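re: that chain from earlier
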Amino acid sequence: MELRKPKKEEFEIYKKLEIKFYSHHKPYKTLLQDIDPRKRNLKKEFIRLIRERNSFFRFVKVHDKVVGYIYGVIKKISENEKNWKRIADLNSIIVLKEFRNQGLAEFMTKEFFSWSKSKNIKYVEASCNVKNKSIIKFNKKLGFKEQHIKFGKIL
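^ sequence. v structure.
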């Protein structure tokens, strides 16, 4: 397996991954449902992800085929008891269904942790849909601790 930065000419790969990811997450209905990727400007998103400075956007390849990606970012935070000014936010991990349970997500996440440490980041947060039991189990396996439950209400 190989983890590398995507190239501009690989937009179609990103687009296919986003569409598959969306179909997988559709059953996790929320009040603020994600917008169908076919209705978003994915090209613009992809270019932004490639160019973003304090981000970790990588494709994972298996046997010369891109089968997923990881995206995380360093963000500034307000004052806290640890006196940290920045934390890492693990935003997305996508692995095609037929390549799951092979250690790819764990490999990508550990590389994200290493990258974060190299940027002097001490804390990583990740969030997911409360109904997504597999990612909750995965996050706990990697040492994440449940911190908050976020509530929403449409008025």
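The first strand starts at residue 2 and ends at 4.
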